[in-house]
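Please go through this chain and its backbone structure tokens and walk me through the local backbone shapes. Keep your notes short.
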Amino acid sequence: NNTLVALPIVAIENILSFMSYDEISQLRLVCKRMDLVCQRMLNQGFLKVERYHNLCQKQVKAQLPRRESERRNHSLARHADILAAVETRLSLLNMTFMKYVDSNLCCFIPGKVIDEIYRVLRYVNSTRAPQRAHEVLQELRDISSMAMEYFDEKIVPILKRKLPGS
């Protein structure tokens, strides 16, 4: 069998690593083996974006003055605001999905959200004077809110029946 899914999982993951997380999430429909590989990559992708965010936040905080009054006028104030808002989003996503991911009932489903968080973090890292936080984060807020609402309304009722002790 000379198909992609016949390759070792490490090889498949290496090939898929060149794709966006949204594309990876769509590949889950191909077959059961691809679904398992993609689920694993999505879960790892969420954990990686959390670590990348922590690194970005640590780097910015290290350059900010200690006094809160001096921080508002600092050149990295908007960077810090954006990263704080991303931290809130990550926390909400974590609370929504990870209980079920940790119970092996599902994976971190919205690959598009991971892609958008990476886009925001790369923007913050590469821009000296970023736009205001609400402008930078509009798309992330929209798609993550939609993903969490859909998950809570449509998927959680199904998963709750599968939870141990239900």
User: Anything to note?
Assistant: The chain is about 75% helix and 0% strand. Residues 23 and 36 are 15 Å apart (CA to CA). The two ends are 42 Å apart (CA to CA). Residues 32-63 form the longest helix (32 residues).
